Amino acid sequence: MKEKITIDEFDGKKFKIRFVEEDDNRKAVVTHYLHNYHNGVKDHFEEEAVGYLKQIVEYKNEEEKLNILEDVALQQLLFEVEDVPFPTPQNYTFKFIDLFAGIGGFRMALQNSGGKCIFTSEWDKFSQITYRANFGETPFGDITKESTKSYIPQEFDVLCGGFPCQPFSHAGLKKGFEDTRGTLFFDVADIINRRIENGNPVRVIFLENVKGLKNHDKGNTLRTIIRTFDDLGYNVSHEVLNSKNFGLPQNRERIFIVAWLREAEREFKFPLGIDTNDNVIFDPKNIIKAKTTKVGDILTKNPDAKYTISDKLYAGHLRRRKEHAEKGNGFGFSSFNKNSTYTSTISARYYKDGSEILIEQEGENPRKLTPREAANLQGYPDNFVIPVSDNQSYKQFGNSVSVPVIQTIFNEIKRQLL
Ligand SMILES: C[S@@+](CC[C@H](N)C(=O)[O-])C[C@H]1O[C@@H](n2cnc3c(N)ncnc32)[C@H](O)[C@@H]1O
Predict the structure, then answer these.
(1) Per-residue model confidence (pLDDT) at position 114
(2) Domain containing 220: what range?
(3) CA-closest residue to ligand 1 atom 7
(4) Which of 103, 122, 252, 394 to mutate to test the pocket of ligand 1 (most atoms within 8 A of CB)?
(5) Tell me: the pLDDT tens digits for 131-168?
(6) How far is the CA of 412 from the centre of ligand 1 (A)?
(7) Which of 28, 279, 344, 392 is 20 to 30 A from 124, comparing alpha carbons?
(8) C-alpha of residue 104 to centroid of ligand 1, in Å
(9) How confident is the model at residue 23 (pLDDT cuts 50, 70, 90)?
(10) Where residue 203 sits, what CATH number does that domain have?
């Protein structure tokens, strides 16, 4: 169909002359509007989104000599945002916002639990591409900017996100919220505080971070987070959990923080893993019964030869391993085979040389994981679209949450939420 409008019309390439905003949220505004077309949140984005739509239709009709009707364009766009692998569930039962969204690990799990995402922020352009290909929505950019925060609708039940870990100032150790100013955690607290000031506090906050947050800055960082939530009226639970206990063959420890509005909390307990029948384990002594998966479960058949590492790179790895054994310096590499119980942690730097997880191959140099295997290792479903380069995808999956861990924790949260 020639006379067609697509979401990509809104990314400013074609319409530079008409749109000269420096901080371009156009695609985010339009996709958020379309995604909320069937609920009240639509009003929040409507004026601006309809304005953009009108300008594009006008432009195409005038300059490209087409004859597009606005309502037809709207129908085309509505179809486009919903024609994705992971659309909003039909009969959703709660609403959430997805901050520091990456490629949507939280969104995947919360949608599976019947949630509707009404706002997303992620400033990395490549993660935005992956996010949109899978969920149909382009995230808003820098969350520290007032212009971004002003787009956040008020009616969400859950705030989730994995904010980067930064030290807080020691200046006035008793002030909590104010002490966090200048960090990304401050922006999370600020968004929560605005809802409190509006007399409509968020019920639950669900955050993920590196395990190092626990002892970061001698424990000051976590203490400040807990005190800030406490001051805002929330009870905080936190727990370090390992993906290998949640049906994934990856040794990945992360800290999870759940903060409940004091008046809304009943009783929340972190699940520590799942057993061989996918039942949730709460007892640390039973963790040993957790489902045992094997690295072979995430491997794909016939990976491309390009993932096999070069003789030069392999020789370097072997040399450093030898040095490490002899002198205790240099670093080694970690290799696994299909019978290994789990790999080491995949991190955002995996794209560099893959030394943290190499797969042994008979009669050949070991190989890196393929992007699809990296997705499997974080529990993403097979139909998750990977629209970016290998390097970008390794960064994205390395940064991501393990979806089944988020899913299991959130199922426990949901039991009290509804
Ligand atoms: C640890 S990753 C979170 C990954 C995510 N949980 C997932 O499942 O893919 C943190 C993300 O925060 C994003 N980020 C950092 N600062 C930001 C900011 N000021 N505004 C928006 N996003 C930001 C980074 O680009 C990164 O993707």
Answers:
(1) 96
(2) 94-288+400-417
(3) 400
(4) 122
(5) 999 999 999 999 999 999 999 999 999 999 998 876 66
(6) 25
(7) 344
(8) 10
(9) low
(10) 3.40.50.150
pLDDT at 174: 57
pLDDT in tens, 280-336: 999 999 998 889 899 999 999 999 999 999 999 999 888 888 887 777 665 678 999
Structure-block tokens of residue 192:
């929560």
What's the mean pLDDT in 345-350?
94
CA end-to-end span of the chain: 44
Q: Which of 152, 209, 399 to mutate to test the pocket of ligand 1 (most atoms within 8 A of CB)?
A: 399
Q: Is 63 near ligand 1, meaning CB less than 6 Å away?
A: no
Measured at the CA of 61, the angle between CA 55 and CA 62, to 5 degrees, comes to: 85
Write down the pLDDT at residue 167: 67
**Average pLDDT value for residue range 379-393:** 98
For residue 3, pLDDT over 90 is answered with no
CA of 293 to the centre of ligand 1 (A): 29
* CA–centroid distance, residue 75 to ligand 1 (Å): 32
Q: Say whether both 113 and 220 belong to one domain.
A: yes
**Catalytic site positions:** 165
**Confidence tier at 63 by pLDDT (50, 70, 90):** confident
Residues 375 and 300 placed together within one structural domain of the fold? yes
Whether ligand 1 lies within 6 angstroms of the CB of 127 is answered as: yes
Closest residue CA from atom 19 of ligand 1: 142
Asked whether residue 299 falls in the same domain as residue 410, the answer is no
Q: 116 is written with which tokens?
A: 């509707």
